């Protein structure tokens, strides 16, 4: 097979990537189907360019001292005004300097967190023929299951399968959700919506605004819940579970299991986000960076995969995504001044998501397209 070198990577000149992508997609079995088939070499479509896989700047957990993801304890937040003020300051600092923080004692029971992870596992461990009925690339459906939302547009496929359920502002018909995880997805989503509303209050105050400001802007109006499954990988050094990206929403709340794999790009170094029992990971999305006029930061992150064991996570995205809306979002006027002029043009959530989806994971930050 003839090959050439492009950007430092070997490329077969007669390699038909589009056909290989289609063949994989047509199986409707996802990455888990490949693993179930007992493959020992990952398909070419999953191999990432070597420069995107480098761990040369990775800080391991053993090396982390003061340079670690902040953990914010919500215990007593409703009872002690002074404690609430301190928590706001901690969240403000984390949102400005990290874009990420973990929350403990957040009000969602550990039992429900474990049940949610179990529900995701039950979905993926079903017979492939049962799962296939949900496999689709129609993003207008309330329940979307597939492998790689950007399979045909991304630079390289990621080693994960996902389902995404749109839970708000319009609740799906329960019958649209898989029976094996229906009840827990609905219960978990209600609790996440409550926590999201509280977080938007605290973030509003962290911006020097009244507590209801971000909620009044409908930042917490939409919620999509994604159940990600990262199967064990025979060649983890060649691929990623999720390529480097920043989230396209206002805010993300992430439940991860105890396997680990999430990494945050902090001061140009990849830093592990170690699983903390009972904790939820919170990160600022692009749209919150945009409306805060860069005060809060949407930080790039990625997921590495494991040779020996599968990983599960549940990402809760506060955004209306593809829902039609004429509501425009730009830098909050109360934050602007002569010394702090607007840095972004206004956009709708739909327009922003469309740009993000078109480019896929691993591409240039979508925020760049909206800078003034």
From TrEMBL:
Residues 219-321 form the Fe2OG dioxygenase domain. GO terms for molecular function: dioxygenase activity; metal ion binding. Gene3D superfamilies: B-lactam Antibiotic, Isopenicillin N Synthase, Chain (2.60.120.330). Keywords: Iron, Metal-binding, Oxidoreductase. InterPro entries: DIOX_N, IPNS-like_FE2OG_OXY, IPNS-like_sf, Oxoglu/Fe-dep_dioxygenase_dom. Belongs to the iron/ascorbate-dependent oxidoreductase family. This is Fe2OG dioxygenase domain-containing protein.
């Amino acid at each position: 097979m003839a090959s050439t070198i492009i950007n430092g990577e070997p490329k077969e000149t007669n390699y038909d990537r589009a056909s290989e992508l289609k063949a994989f997609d047509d199986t409707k079995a996802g990455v888990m189907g490949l693993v179930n088939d007992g493959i020992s070499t990952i398909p070419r479509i999953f191999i990432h360019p070597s420069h995107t896989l480098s761990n040369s700047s990775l800080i391991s957990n053993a090396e982390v001292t003061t340079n670690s993801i902040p953990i914010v304890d919500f215990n007593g937040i409703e009872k002690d005004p002074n404690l609430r003020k301190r928590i706001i300051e901690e969240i403000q600092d984390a949102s400005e300097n990290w874009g990420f923080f973990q929350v403990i004692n957040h009000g969602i029971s550990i039992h429900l967190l474990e049940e949610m992870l179990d529900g995701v596992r039950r979905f993926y461990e079903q017979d492939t023929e049962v799962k296939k009925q949900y496999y689709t690339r129609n993003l207008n459906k309330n329940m979307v299951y597939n492998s790689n939302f950007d399979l045909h547009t991304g630079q390289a496929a990621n080693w994960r399968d996902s389902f995404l359920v749109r839970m708000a502002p319009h609740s799906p018909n329960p019958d649209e959700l898989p029976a094996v995880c229906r009840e827990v997805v609905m219960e978990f989503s209600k609790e996440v919506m409550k926590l999201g509303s509280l977080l938007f209050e605290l973030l509003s105050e962290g911006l020097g605004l009244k507590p209801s400001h971000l909620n009044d802007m409908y930042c917490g109006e939409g919620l999509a819940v994604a159940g990600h499954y990262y199967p064990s990988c025979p060649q983890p050094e060649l691929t990623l579970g999720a390529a480097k990206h920043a989230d396209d929403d206002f805010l993300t709340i992430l439940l991860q299991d105890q396997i680990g794999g999430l990494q945050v790009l902090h001061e140009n170094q990849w830093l592990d986000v170690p699983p903390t029992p009972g904790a939820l990971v919170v990160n600022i999305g692009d749209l919150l960076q945009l409306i805060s006029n860069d005060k809060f930061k949407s930080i790039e992150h990625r997921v590495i995969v494991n040779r020996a064991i599968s990983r599960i996570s549940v990402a809760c995205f506060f955004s209306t995504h593809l829902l039609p809306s004429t509501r425009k979002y730009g830098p909050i006027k109360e934050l602007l001044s002569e010394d702090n002029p607007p840095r972004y043009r206004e956009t709708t959530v739909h327009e922003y998501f469309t740009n993000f989806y078109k480019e896929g994971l691993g591409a240039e930050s979508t925020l760049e397209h909206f800078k003034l």
